[in-house]
Amino acid sequence: MGGGNNYSLEEQVIGRWIDGHPLYQKTIDCGANPIGRNDGTVIATIPDMSIGFIKCAYLTGSGNTGNIISLPRILPISAAYEVSVNIVGNNITYNSGDSTGSYGNVIVTVQYTKTTD
Fold first, then answer.
1. Model-level pTM?
2. Where are the domains of the chain?
3. Of 48, 98, 105, 106, which is the most buried if we count CB atoms within 10 A?
4. With left for phi above 0 and alpha for psi between -120 and 50, is residue 20 left, alpha or beta?
5. pLDDT at residue number 68
6. Residue 10's pLDDT band (cuts 50, 70, 90)
7. Cα–Cα distances in Å, from 107 out to 1, 9, 22, 43, 75?
């Protein structure tokens, strides 16, 4: 079992949860930033997830920006630039304002246990 710093697109066991069940980690490239979606758009699903939490989430830069933004992004000056990623059931959901269009893909690393273990 490795540590939680080995990021991979493949599911891997990284340790044990506090109840003794295996703890999994997976990094998911969720694809293009769904601009202006404030309805909890599902961007990925992890089958059999029991307890899950987001270790890190990013919006990658595109165009001339080259920036990478850590999520959630909350700006007190304008909700148009706010972005969040959440876990609802087995789904990773996405909410954003209307002014996040200069960014590319959403990348999320999730740690979780499974109902099948």
1. 0.78
2. 12-114
3. 106
4. left
5. 74
6. very high
7. 23, 10, 23, 10, 20
Q: Which residue do the tokens 């109902």 mark?
A: 115
Answer for the pair 96, 36: CB distance below 8 angstroms, yes or no. yes
| pLDDT exceeds 70 at position 99 | no
Question: CA–CA separation, 46 vs 112, rounded Å?
Answer: 9
The span from the first CA to the last CA of the chain, in angstroms, equals: 16
| Main-chain dihedrals φ then ψ at residue 81, nearest 5 degrees | -105, 5
State the SS3 of the chain: CCCCCCCCCCCEEEEECCCCCEEEEEEEEEEECCCCCCCCEEEEECCCEEEEEEEEEEEEECCCCCCCEECCECCCCCHHHCEEEEEECCEEEEEECCCCCCEEEEEEEEEEEECCC
Write out pLDDT tens, residues 41-60: 888 889 999 999 888 887 77
| Token code pair at residue 56 | 């890190």
